[in-house]
Amino acid sequence: LTLTTGVVRDAATGRPLPGVVVQIVGDPAAPAVTDSAGRFSLDLASPVRLRFTRIGFAAAEIPAVPGATLLVTLTSAPQALEAVTVTALRGDAGAPLSQTRRSEEDLEARYSGQEMPLILATLPSITATSDAGSESGYTYLRLRGLDQTRLNITLDGIPLNEPEDQGLYFSNFPDFANSIRSVQVQRGVGTSSYGTASYAGAVNFESVALAASARGGELQVTGGSYDTRRVALEYATGLRPSGFAGYARLSGGATDGYRRHSGNRSRSAFLSGGYFGARNVVKATVLSGFASNDLAYLAAPIASLDADRRSNPLGQDESDRFGQTFLTLSHTIALGAFTTLATTAYHVRSDGDYDVRIAPDLYNYNLGSVWTGLLTTVRAERGRLTLDAGAHASTYRREHWAAIRPDRSERLYTNAGRKQEASAFAKTTFVAGRTTLVADLQLRGARFAYAPDANADVAPESIRWGFLNPKIGITVRAAPRLALYASLGRTGREPTRTDMFAGFDNLDATIAAFIGPFDRVRPEYVTDLEAGISHETAIAALRVNGFWMSFRDEIAAIGQLSYLGLPLRKNVDRSVRRGFELDATVHRMGRLSGNVSAAYTHARIRSYADDATGSVYRNVAPLLTPRITAAHDVRLRIAPMLQASVGGRYSGRAFLANTGDADFVLPAAYVADLGVRAGTDRRNLQLVVHNIGDTDRYSGGYTDGATSYYYVHAARHITVTARVAF
């Protein structure tokens, strides 16, 4: 070993930089850190590449040989401060998590106007359903068979799940994917986050990085089958000499939908601007959307689908209108060479109404909510130790009221729910040679209070929940490009308002007596063991993991909908989900690139009592949880200005009820899309043929115990998108 020394300086001022982490690329051993004079030293046995990193500066890599004396300069990069909260919630790339990341390039290659759940459906263990059968409108995803209310969903660290029912309707933010820089999906309890519990997993979105974006804009125009059309215009200022940067996107779209009267008309805006100093970043964001949908939330019975595959049991007069706006203001500061502090305040308003035909009347249900929160994250790095800590508090109020059309001024009832929650977490990461140890602890509390209608003859009621969610993990770097990991965690989650209200929107004396007190539905808990292996080269990356999720008091769907079209659920004492997942990415192999994923899930409910029949079923598979899922997205560069892609998704057979009855199943199906893109990165035309095999596929469904009802996947159809950058 020979001593190699050097000095690191600020490229702009020439001053020495203390606190710079100096590490051998590909070697996770303990790094060196520059002292107050910017000096460092390392013992080297052979030529290597050294990587230099410090908060607020762009990372740099240079070659080094044993015995050399180096002078290194780092350039100030305030955009590095922009993603502090995202980094704290996601964890490092080598964190002991079962995770999949997709970059802006990956998302753009697949995007032709579809809602986000359909884009994520190529990731391991994810299935997606569309009410309308096509790419726009209400779409939902499930992870390992669990619905998306069990997912923690964030944008730049800000929680997106509505607190009351813990759901997120992506249709309220059309063209959302156009403003996303990257997405990470954590499977299992993952790492601590803000908002709804990460019960089945977490989906972390990162928006466009203002300071890293080049100056310029883009116009997108889409047209396709079922009178589908979309226009999106975006512009980024880039980082100006004054330190300011901005980004804006305006979008509008409409479609008739695949199913009868399942159309969608929507518009959205994403506006973001900020000041980026050497040690401070101040950033404001507005995300606003409005959508009007012709409703198709009910599946169609098989007999109707045999007669008309586009059948929709809802009438033409049933529609909805919803708008939602997120306002955020964040400040990030580098407190020193090793520590950053990020604080974000957010305010959300949403309102809308929807129609439900309860013969002979057309009922109109209304929702209006106000949601305000504050979160703060601190990240400290010192040699081999990294600490991430955060706290979050929010208050939320939603009003519910109903009327009968055409006279909406005469309310049948008005009630309101208020929910407050607070949480705090601390995560530590310690590097010891080739081993990384992680410990994570979250404390979370929530309170829900119900204010009934003045004429309901029931008293106000409230309930509190508290959760302590610990996680530990270890990653061992067996070789420079090969890592083994394992993690164990436990988390709990409170029931939603719909769970506690048994699907009712308003409680009066009769209904309240029927459903009982709020604590009738118990919180659900999961203990999750994850273990896997990852291998990455310049050409490809492979991740394989196994999981064992043991549930206590899971709030399981029973396969039926309420009169408002909401899934009904109840506690089951014991259940388990275990299996394996694979995610492979080819960065570039000649002219080929793409992703392949697959998953095997063995899920069981120990004992399930069917309330309708009184029968008890033991060791049965939970509904809508296929044993095998797989997906691929392969891209071939045919010529410098011509690229083709084939994306496909396979979902195995799944039950529609928790009874194991083979008469009520969602059949296995495979659907593939063919894409062709011609042009340059700045000007191109993309044609996508969806469901190129014209497969008669169902994406979801349910049963009433006598009949199977299905949501259909659209027949073969096309979309064409033109992109012009300026």
Written account of the structure:
- By secondary structure, the chain is mainly β.
- Helices cover 5% and strands 59% of the residues.
- The chain has a 22-stranded antiparallel barrel. It has a five-stranded mixed β-sheet with strand order 8-14-15-12-13. Strands 3-2-5-6 form a four-stranded antiparallel β-sheet, with no helix packed on it.
- The chain is globular.
- 46% of the residues are buried.
- The mean pLDDT is 93.
Topology:
Elements: E1 2-10, E2 21-24, E3 32-33, E4 39-44, E5 48-53, E6 60-64, E7 69-74, H1 84-90, E8 98-103, H2 104-110, H3 116-120, E9 126-130, E10 139-143, E11 146-147, E12 151-155, E13 158-159, E14 180-187, E15 201-207, E16 216-224, E17 228-236, E18 244-255, E19 264-276, E20 280-294, E21 300-301, H4 302-307, E22 319-334, E23 339-358, E24 361-382, E25 385-404, E26 413-432, E27 435-451, E28 461-479, E29 482-493, H5 497-500, H6 509-515, E30 524-536, E31 540-561, E32 567-589, E33 592-609, E34 616-620, E35 628-639, E36 642-651, E37 654-655, E38 665-666, E39 669-679, E40 683-690, E41 698-703, E42 708-712, E43 717-725
Parallel strand pairs: 1-7, 12-15
Antiparallel strand pairs: 1-4, 2-3, 2-5, 5-6, 8-14, 9-10, 10-11, 12-13, 14-15, 16-17, 16-43, 17-18, 18-19, 19-20, 20-22, 21-42, 22-23, 23-24, 24-25, 25-26, 26-27, 27-28, 28-29, 29-30, 30-31, 31-32, 32-33, 33-34, 33-35, 35-36, 36-39, 37-38, 39-40, 40-43, 41-42
